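User: Please fill in residues for this 752-position structure.
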């Protein structure tokens, strides 16, 4: 009944938004909506821009602009380029973007962990907010579950670095990732792509766009990804690190005049891959049952192999040209998801430290924008609304003590925002931009924790479990509001050269710790505060040598305050204490360099470099059950933040067999990084390099493509996640999760 009520409310709000469109929008106008695109060709315009040096158009500031003109440090990667280089999902962006970390979360196959410039959120538990916002066609994806997007039906991906609080609002404190899908156009087009590779990988992707009338087109894209595991569960025989995903997207686009564009789109992703249980990094005394496996991709987990993640959504977008200078845009969307999973923290056949879990969430968002495009002034004014609920439950099973702690709860969020961002051309060379956003969040958190005697609670199948102490049982509400401004100055001494300086603020909303234990930490019922950042940036964007060399430089400094840090530590009483600290303050500064050379149509080269220096100035936390916070800044570091990231590649092409063949070798490097704020030598990852290579042959008419992609050629082993629960009661459970080994994939694609 609750979901039905929400759906009805969503439809009513949607209808109200559309009803508010002035009648003038229905008249014919020569003004095209800002983001209307032509039908995709075999090689899209974005890809052509990257390879030939033509202008790349982005919508980072909610309106179409040349990427050089945007005073924001950002990377733009086309979907075609990602496909050609064998990118399996959105995490491949970390190889092409400085100071970015994108990884699949511990124990999952489709939950995203994102950090940019040291800012992010590692804990994917329901109720926690991400620090890097993810958007699919301007629709905010509030939860990380199901956010590891596969690369299909994508025009381009825009990665905006630094706080984007003015235009994108809450929870873009580290940046934003915009996943822009292809528009259908008015011509029949389609694509079928099949791939086969290592570990019996078999991928099949199909897309089609069909014009029904001169003004109405429909389209669909379906992807099936299947792969055996990189390793084996030595207890159950199941694959470990396998992939079993089916995803689909359907859309209808209506454009009765040049001034009107309406799109209805739906997407659904089902991930039935086995859970990733990780591998033990240390033993537990001399007990062979706890010994590390020979392969880092193997496990001895005995909790089971059931895992299911469903993410789906529906959106309605309308763009209406009201005049030569004004465009009205409405974006209505509903998304929901469910996750059933299990995590075996001890990685043995025993229930020493097991966690079965269930998550569920839904969200409705409505955004209204009024865009102005004048000769000297451009900008956008908007209103935003979000209504969301995230809930779940999990058991923490301590088999050696024959006890279980059930944790369950939910967090309801209503968020309201008003924003504006405008640019003024003071002269032909000097531009000033200013923006402001006001956000108000109302949150209600409910948390329940209870001890049971027995292996698992009744919620997860053990009806005979004996109820014990209720550790947490509360419902509380809090409101948070914040103003996030942004100011920038751009000086363009000539065409295709932009020198800019900017200052902006961002924040991540406060909330309630869904793991909070009121016995260990009674103040958990009060929740935690928002975290904030204030960031300064100097940059240069330019094209040189007759547009054969493109260079982006950015230097930044950020003051980061009240950072939300999730701490989970073994407790002397035999349990696991979890609490969220607002950690104090930190300074972060660094530089980013991106270069692209296109000396001819037959050769191009790309390179990027990122440097991040992140240091805590104050980190207040409670130690050993104390009641007075202690400053431990000199003992804490930034997680998932390598000091250096770098990448380099080139593409050489030549005519071959009536078409064009291109070869692209690529090297990416990341320096040492820690997985948590407390350095853990057994878990932390040393610096490493990955070597990839791809070869593509495209027929002269662009209809056929044959490719070979080789990834991690050196077969590097590198950790992307882990857990740290030392001690006899927990089976000395220190486990790691690893990135993919060396793989080879062959692809054949037909476009029409």
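Assistant: Residues filled in for all 752 positions:
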């Amino acid at each position: 009944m609750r979901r039905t009520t929400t759906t009805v409310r969503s439809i009513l709000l949607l209808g109200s938004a559309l009803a508010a469109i002035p009648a003038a929008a229905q008249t014919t106008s020569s003004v095209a909506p800002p983001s209307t695109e032509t039908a995709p060709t075999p090689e899209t315009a974005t890809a052509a821009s990257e390879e030939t040096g033509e202008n790349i158009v982005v919508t980072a500031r909610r309106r179409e602009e040349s990427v050089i003109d945007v005073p924001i440090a950002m990377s733009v990667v086309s979907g075609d380029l990602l496909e050609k280089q064998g990118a399996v999902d959105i995490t491949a962006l970390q190889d092409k973007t400085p100071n970015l970390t994108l990884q699949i979360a511990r124990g999952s196959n489709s939950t995203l962990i994102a950090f940019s410039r040291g800012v992010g959120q590692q804990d994917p538990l329901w109720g926690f907010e991400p620090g890097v916002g993810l958007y699919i066609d301007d629709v905010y994806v509030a939860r990380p579950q199901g956010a590891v997007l596969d690369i299909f039906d994508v025009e381009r991906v825009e990665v905006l670095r630094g706080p984007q609080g003015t235009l994108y609002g809450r929870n873009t404190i580290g940046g934003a990732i915009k996943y822009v899908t292809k528009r259908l156009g008015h011509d029949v087009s389609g694509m079928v792509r099949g791939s086969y590779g290592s570990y019996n990988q078999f991928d099949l992707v199909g897309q089609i766009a069909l014009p029904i009338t001169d003004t109405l087109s429909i389209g669909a894209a379906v992807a099936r990804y299947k792969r055996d595991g990189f390793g084996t569960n030595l207890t159950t025989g199941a694959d470990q690190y396998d992939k079993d995903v089916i995803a689909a997207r359907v859309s209808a686009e209506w454009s009765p005049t040049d001034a009107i564009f309406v799109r209805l789109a739906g997407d659904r992703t089902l991930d039935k891959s086995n859970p990733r249980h990780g591998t033990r990094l240390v033993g537990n005394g001399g007990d062979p049952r706890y010994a590390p496996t020979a392969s880092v991709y193997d496990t001895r987990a005995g909790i089971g192999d059931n895992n299911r993640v469903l993410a789906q959504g529906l959106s309605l977008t309308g763009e209406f040209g009201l005049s030569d200078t004004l465009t009205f845009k409405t974006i209505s969307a509903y998304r929901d998801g469910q996750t059933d999973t299990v995590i075996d923290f001890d990685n043995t056949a025993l229930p020493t430290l097991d966690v079965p879990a269930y998550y569920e969430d839904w969200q409705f968002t409505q955004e209204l924008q009024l865009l102005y495009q004048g000769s000297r002034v451009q900008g956008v004014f908007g209103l935003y609304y979000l209504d969301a609920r995230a809930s779940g439950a999990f058991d923490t099973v301590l088999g050696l003590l024959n006890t279980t702690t059930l944790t369950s709860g939910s967090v309801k969020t209503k968020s309201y925002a008003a924003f504006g961002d405008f640019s003024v051309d003071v002269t032909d060379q000097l531009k000033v931009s200013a923006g402001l956003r006001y956000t108000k969040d109302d949150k209600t958190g409910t948390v329940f924790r209870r001890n049971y005697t027995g292996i698992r609670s009744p919620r997860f199948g053990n009806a005979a479990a004996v109820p014990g102490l209720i550790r947490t049982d509360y419902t509380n509400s809090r409101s948070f509001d914040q103003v996030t401004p942004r100011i920038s100055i751009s000086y363009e001494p000539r065409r295709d050269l932009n020198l800019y300086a900017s200052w902006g603020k961002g924040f991540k909303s406060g909330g309630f710790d869904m793991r909070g234990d009121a016995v260990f930490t009674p103040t958990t019922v009060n929740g935690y505060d928002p975290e904030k950042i204030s960031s300064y940036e100097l940059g240069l964007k330019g094209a040189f040598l007759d547009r054969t060399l493109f260079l982006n430089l950015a230097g930044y400094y950020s003051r980061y305050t009240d950072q939300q840090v999730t701490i989970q530590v073994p407790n002397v009483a035999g349990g696991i204490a979890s609490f969220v600290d607002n950690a104090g303050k930190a300074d972060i500064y660094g530089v980013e360099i991106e270069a692209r050379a296109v000396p001819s149509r037959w050769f191009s080269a790309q390179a990027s470099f990122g440097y991040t220096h992140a240091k805590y100035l104050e980190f207040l936390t409670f130690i050993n059950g104390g009641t007075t916070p202690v400053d431990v800044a000199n003992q804490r570091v930034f997680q998932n933040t390598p000091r250096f990231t770098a990448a380099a590649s080139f593409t050489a092409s030549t005519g071959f067999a009536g078409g064009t063949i291109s070869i692209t070798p690529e090297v990416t490097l990341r320096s040492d990084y820690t997985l948590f704020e407390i350095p853990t030598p057994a878990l932390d990852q040393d610096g490493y390099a990955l070597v990839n290579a791809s070869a593509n042959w495209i027929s002269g008419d662009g209809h056929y493509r044959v490719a070979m992609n080789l990834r991690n050629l050196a077969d590097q082993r590198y950790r992307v996640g882990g857990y740290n629960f030392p001690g006899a009661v927990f089976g000395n459970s220190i486990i790691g999760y690893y990135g993919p080994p060396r793989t080879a994939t062959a692809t054949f694609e037909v476009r029409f």
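For context: The chain has one domain: 57-387+400-719+727-751.
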